[in-house]
Amino acid sequence: MKKFVSIFLAACAMSAMSVTAFARQADAVNVMSDESLKLSFGEETFEQLIQPGQSYTYPLYLEQEDGKLVPLTDEHLEDLRLRAETKNGRSVLSSFEVEKEGDRYQLEVTAQAGWPTAQTEVEGTVKAVKRSNGKAVGSVQAEMTVGYPTIPDEALADVEDGGSVFVAADAPVITKAADGGKVTFTNGLWSYQVRVSGQESLNLLYNERAIKEVSSKFEDQNFKYISFPGGPAFDFTGTMTIDLSEEMEDFGGQFYVYRYLQGRLHQLDATVDLDAQTLSFQTKNLGRFVITDKAIADGTLVDESFAGTQQTPSENTNQNSQTNSQSGSQSDGQNGSYSENQDYQAGGVDKTNPDTGAEDHLALAAAAAAVSALAATVISKKR
Fold first, then answer.
1. Which residues lie across from 240 on neighbouring strands?
2. Can you tell me the distance from the alpha carbon of 20 to that of 15, in angstroms, rounded to the nearest whole number?
3. From CA 60, how far away is CA 323, in angstroms rounded?
4. Average pLDDT for residues 108-128, to the nearest whole number?
5. Of 16, 219, 275, 302, which residue is most buried, by most CB within 10 angstroms?
6. 205 with 229: CB under 8 angstroms?
7. What is the Cα gyration radius of the chain?
8. Which parts of the chain fold into alpha helices (H)?
9. What are the tens digits of pLDDT across the range 302-337?
10. Do residues 306 and 262 touch, judged by C-beta distance below 8 A?
């Protein structure tokens, strides 16, 4: 009898232990299934401005219980998937998605190409969701700003009549123009003097890229290009002056100036100062300007895709075949606004990786408890 009682008590004790162990295991699973995962962008603060036409990547991390960050990889992910979504500002982005770089996950953000003057706030989120029911078990937010850097307001406010403002390629936007007289915007290669009283915001982004359609059509000519792809239009007519010191010899002192608009070359009335080695013309609309050493008929169609479109009258049209230093003052021509919807910059999206401030390699601490061990099995494997 005593032997039976001993065996019975031992069995009860083992049963109790099994039940307790099962209960603990069940509790651990329930905790992990309900507990949010801590996703992170590391030390990234998103203070860097997202510029139109550019791509940026931000590595994703998992924050452990001890605060250490682990690069998010397939090794950690199971039964979950990652989802990226935006709340505000989606219209200024061409993509906002999670991608894989090597064995690690990252957020890639690409801004729509264009030449806006305003900066747009974008709010986005990366979520870890269950594959079975789509329930989010972890998320991390990304708040960023899309647009171009601006010329500081004080740089314009302090400019007196006739003063100059340097237009840097990395800060081309005017958001507020000072009231008063004329201001000269310059980058050293070109200068544009114009009255800016009450002027609305403008994007003075510029480049010297060749217009391949023009260069390929007139292969036996020399060309110089100055382009303002945003097509900024001023309220008042100003004077554009372009430095020709590097072109004088190659061009043989012969200069013909055109505006490239809607696939055609429209000749402009301009003046060449041989002593100063500059060329100048009047305009209130900045666009794509072409300088060459041989005459091209005004209105020449260059891009055949515009063959069926109506020609837009050229501003400051000059019927003379050649500009010269004795041409004197020029008429303003038409003051209409030019639509440059097809006036794009050369080249495609420039994918760059910003300095995120987060280190690429972070140590992975060993899990000390059943909860930590289970976490590694819950985070998803991306399809």
1. 192, 281
2. 9
3. 59
4. 93
5. 302
6. yes
7. 32
8. 2-34, 153-157, 212-217, 248-251, 370-378
9. 998 888 776 655 555 543 334 443 333 333 332 222
10. yes
Residues in the chain: 383
CB 282 within 8 A of CB 238: yes
Across-strand partners of 143?
123
- Tokens for 261, please give them: 């608009």
Q: Among the listed ranges 70-79, 129-138, 182-191, 369-378, which one has the minimum average pLDDT value?
A: 369-378
Sheet holding 39-40, edge to edge: 39-40, 61-63, 69-71
% of the chain exceeding 90 in pLDDT: 48
Is the separation of the CB atoms in 267 and 318 below 8 Å? yes
DSSP state string for 182-224: EEEEE-SSEEEEEE-TTPPPEE---B----HHHHHH-TTS-EE
Q: Tell me the residue type at 21.
A: A
Residue 192: half-sphere exposure toward Cβ, Cα within 13 Å: 22
Q: Give whole-number Cα distances, 129 to 182, 224, 264, in Å.
A: 58, 55, 53
The answer to whether 97 touches 84, Cβ cutoff 8 Å, is yes
